[in-house]
Automatic annotation (TrEMBL):
<keyword id="KW-0446">Lipid-binding</keyword>
<dbReference type="GO" id="GO:0008289">
    <property type="term" value="F:lipid binding"/>
</dbReference>
<dbReference type="InterPro" id="IPR050270">
    <property type="entry name" value="DegV_domain_contain"/>
</dbReference>
<dbReference type="InterPro" id="IPR003797">
    <property type="entry name" value="DegV"/>
</dbReference>
<protein>
    <submittedName>
        <fullName>DegV family protein with EDD domain</fullName>
    </submittedName>
</protein>
<dbReference type="Pfam" id="PF02645">
    <property type="entry name" value="DegV"/>
</dbReference>
<dbReference type="InterPro" id="IPR043168">
    <property type="entry name" value="DegV_C"/>
</dbReference>
Length: 288
């Protein structure tokens, strides 16, 4: 029987892909104005962006262990004899703790993987794991592949303001930029699962141009047949035009692309980074 894959809603996988690969998805929760919602189920990006612009209180919370256990049981009943459960970095959310608690009660063995990342950097790894599982890979092999792809990935992003990260407590080492936040446009990245400052520039146009350069560099440059094929996702929150233009420039500059797509950030990550955010996830196809 196959190994099944589970992730959470911050992978931002499309419903079609989830259905195609039989992936279980556990939604994180978003609280807007005191009302709790499930990401991707009863709240979307637009509602969160509107709430942030209106300065309404927005916070996030992890799913319960019971929510994970229900998904694990459904997959076991569907024929899975093992599960690999892959989740947003523990430095950004306590979601993985719920998964670990549920794994102890699961009717089949569950390997919980801390992706140390988020978004499609995690999503592409989960998809690779699901494809490997469909080909007969063991749970141990699937978990190793997922971990390798996550570790090899690079996430860089630009935010219009650091205020949302500060309010949500996710700012990490980027707090060093707060004193000059009004005078700069910060470029941030993920390092071992935590948000870190990379560079500071003076205008949004320069920040986006620099984001492009960092993404191309992370992909291994623009030319070379020996380079590893990469999947790239351009994430955004309420900034689709800028995201589409950035994606087209990356398409023309990276010649060893696997997939390249524009994926809007969901409510949970969006609540912490704010409207206008652009991010690029560069994910080499390693470990297979």
């Amino acid at each position: 029987m196959p190994t099944a894959l589970v992730t959470d809603s911050t992978a931002y996988l499309s419903p079609d892909r989830v259905a195609e690969h039989g992936i279980g998805v556990v939604p994180l929760h978003v609280v807007v104005g005191g009302t709790e919602h499930r990401e991707g189920v009863d709240i979307g990006s637009a509602e969160v962006a509107d709430a942030l612009r209106a300065f309404r209180p927005v916070s996030t919370s992890r799913p319960s262990p019971q929510a994970f256990l229900e998904v694990y049981r459904q997959l076991a009943e569907g024929g899975a004899d093992a599960i690999v459960s892959v989740h947003i970095s523990a430095d950004m959310s306590s979601t993985i703790g719920s998964a670990q608690l549920a794994a102890q009660q699961s009717p089949v063995p569950v390997t919980v993987v801390d992706s140390r990342t988020m978004g499609m950097a995690m999503g592409y790894a989960v998809l690779a794991g699901a494809q490997a599982a469909a080909g007969g890979a063991s749970a141990e092999e699937v978990a190793a592949l997922v971990a390798a792809r996550c570790e090899a990935s690079t996430v860089v992003f630009y935010v219009d303001t650091l205020e949302h990260l500060r309010r949500g407590g996710r700012i990490g080492k980027a707090s060093a930029l707060l004193g000059s936040a009004l005078a700069i446009k910060p470029i941030l990245g993920l390092s071992d699962g935590a948000i870190v400052p990379l560079e500071r520039v003076r205008t949004s146009s320069k920040a986006i141009a620099r984001l492009e350069e960092l993404a191309v560099a992370a992909a291994g440059g623009a030319e070379g047949a020996d380079r590893v094929e990469v999947d790239v996702a351009v994430h955004h929150l309420d900034s689709s035009d800028r995201a589409e233009k950035l994606a087209e420039r990356l398409r023309s500059r990276i010649d060893h692309l696997g997939e390249l797509e524009v994926v809007e950030l969901g409510a949970v990550v969006g609540a912490h980074v704010g409207p206008g955010t652009l991010a690029v996830a560069v994910c080499p196809r390693v470990g297979g």
